[in-house]
């Protein structure tokens, strides 16, 4: 018997005396969670997102739709990037102001190839203000999960206010649990036994978030 068979057998035994008409699990307990903490305007929610992103050591930038390409080009130039990974569905206008080498997000790409790329530019699925969290769901303008975990520099564009929600429950309502969700709260970081912070261990060392209005 495999471990899987053993676990499933234990589950069946545990449920053997449960009536078939018993209250469904998702209705068995009261879950009166707050959908939002406080009463904020749309502008205040966006400001809270920016504040919490910065608190997690992400670098936050503001732009409008017309200035987005120049903003991204400036961030790549400041970083000294000569190559950038591009999701297949990313708006080409976002990179129209830069001449860096575009590396397509392709299935055959290897981790070594991605490690040689300087930056990655993506959109996002949703941004959660109360936790300063950006969620990617592998959409066409975000690409495969690995392209946002291997390069050391990630530029993520958040459309405001359309993609900004206040709370995790509100964010979950917009997400498909069957998709590959990546939850990002600041650049990748960990601490050693003496609590010395080390960034870039499990993902990008630098996260730059562009809050773009008018998109």
From TrEMBL:
Under which name does UniProt file this protein? Lactate utilization protein C
* InterPro entries recorded: FTHF_cligase-like_sf, LUD_dom, NagB/RpiA_transferase-like
* UniProt cross-references to Pfam families, sorted A to Z: LUD_dom
Please name the taxonomic classification of the source: Bacteria, Bacillati, Actinomycetota, Actinomycetes, Kitasatosporales
Domain LUD positions: 47-212
Q: Which SUPFAM superfamilies match?
A: NagB/RpiA/CoA transferase-like
